[in-house]
Q: What sequence folds into this?
């Protein structure tokens, strides 16, 4: 067994073992409490190899197709955000694009990325919104990162996450999303519902890969420094 990195349940069960291809013998464990599927530490890449994979990404801020892809998160966030509100794009990658889209819409957005824009001071401020697009599936400690993102939100703020969700156990072995060697955590709708309950957040689920959490106005947060 491999304890769940999100809820710490030690009753996780081996769901699937990759038997062929570049990820041969990689194991995936399913948590019965929060429905997270995770890859144990023994099968995760080290930082150097992980970054080498990210360096191959070609996310051009001027690519209209990439921008269209990001509208799945951008548009429902903007529906909630008055012009002038400020945010943070966490895990902005080598070609920050979502932050530029917010900037262009009149919603200034800072960036943070552990490999490409590592400015820790930005994580000590609070914002009206935080986005995390195609990032949370890469993190080995999802609970710590989720708490970190909430700490960056002002009361009443919004946290938007984009990541493909697994749906049925019997479809997992044929799901291409799990084949990326840097993808180590896979979320279900029930996983996000678990987080909403744990942190007393309002959750809105959108089709396929987008969820938005609302932090209650009464929640205790840091003093605004943004």
A:
């Amino acid at each position: 067994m491999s304890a769940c990195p999100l809820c710490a349940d030690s009753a996780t069960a081996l769901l699937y073992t990759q038997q062929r291809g570049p990820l041969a013998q990689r194991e995936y464990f399913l948590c019965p409490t929060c429905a997270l599927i995770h890859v144990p530490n023994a099968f995760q890449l080290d930082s150097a190899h992980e970054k080498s994979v990210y360096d191959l990404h070609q996310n051009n801020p001027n690519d209209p197709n990439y921008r269209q892809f990001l509208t799945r998160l951008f548009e429902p966030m903007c529906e909630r955000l008055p012009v002038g509100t400020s945010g943070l794009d966490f895990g902005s990658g080598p070609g920050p694009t979502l932050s530029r889209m917010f900037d262009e819409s009149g919603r200034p957005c800072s960036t943070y990325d552990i490999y490409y824009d590592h400015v820790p001071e930005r994580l000590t401020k609070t914002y009206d919104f935080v986005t995390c697009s195609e990032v949370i599936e890469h993190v080995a400690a999802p609970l710590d990162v989720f708490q970190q993102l909430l700490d960056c939100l002002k009361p009443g703020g919004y946290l938007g996450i984009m990541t493909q969700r697994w749906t049925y156990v019997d479809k997992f072995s044929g799901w291409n999303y799990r084949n990326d060697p840097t993808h180590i955590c896979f979320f279900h709708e029930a996983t996000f519902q678990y987080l909403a309950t744990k942190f007393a957040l309002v959750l809105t689920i959108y089709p396929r890969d987008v969820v938005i959490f609302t932090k209650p106005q009464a929640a205790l947060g840091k003093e605004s420094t943004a």
